[in-house]
Amino acid sequence: MGEARPDVYCTQLGYWTGWVQGRQWACLNPGSTTVVIYLNQNEFNTFCRSIYRDTSAYAKAEGFDAQFGGTRWGCYKDTLSAPTPTPTLFVRPSATPIPRLTRLGEFQVEWYCNQQGYGVQVVNSNRDWACLFNGTNTIAKILGKNDFDRICQVTYRDPNAIAIKDGNNPTDAYNWSCYAFR
């Protein structure tokens, strides 16, 4: 049927869109990082049914969206069922108290590579961090979200700390910060 875009869903509800805890999309209070709604299968199903006005529509995770850093979702319906064009009432979910996503600060990548016996460098047109083999300066490993999460957990001594790409530095690799729910 088409895309199930989290930004459209959250905007319909009057919120901003963001992602937390890896690939989990969420609706945020405008101007803040306060999560109001975690977008899960049920929310994406509701969105698909509402936007396509089809009660048999459902959402399906389609993989990782590198552009936005979260799971890409699509709207589908089984071809065996006939469409029922009935208007659906879109009901705003009630807010439930949830922990607030709090920015802990920035982090240093150098120690992470150094403690594994590697050097470090920004690569891929300044988009990525890489650990390099000492002596040859060839790439041993390009760091990803899981590595950054681990750096945050060690740096801030919080096993639940996560890394979120939230900055606007022209050097894209420097746009990561550490967060935790508090």
Structure, explained:
With 182 residues, this protein is of the alpha+beta class. The chain folds into two domains: 2-98, no CATH class; 103-181, no CATH class. It is 19% helix and 34% strand. It has four helices and twelve strands; from the N terminus they run E-H-E-E-E-H-E-E-E-H-E-E-E-H-E-E. The protein has a three-stranded antiparallel beta sheet with strand order 1-6-5. Strands 2-3-4 form a three-stranded antiparallel beta sheet. A hairpin with a 5-residue loop joins strand 9 (128-133) and strand 10. The two termini are 39 Å apart.
List the helices and strands and how they pair.
Elements: E1 2-3, H1 6-12, E2 16-20, E3 24-28, E4 35-38, H2 41-52, E5 58-65, E6 70-76, E7 101-105, H3 110-114, E8 118-123, E9 128-133, E10 139-142, H4 145-155, E11 162-165, E12 176-181
Antiparallel strand pairs: 1-6, 2-3, 3-4, 5-6, 7-12, 8-9, 9-10, 11-12
Q: What's this, in brief?
A:
This protein is an alpha+beta fold. Helices cover 19% and strands 34% of the residues. The radius of gyration is 20 Å and the shape is elongated.
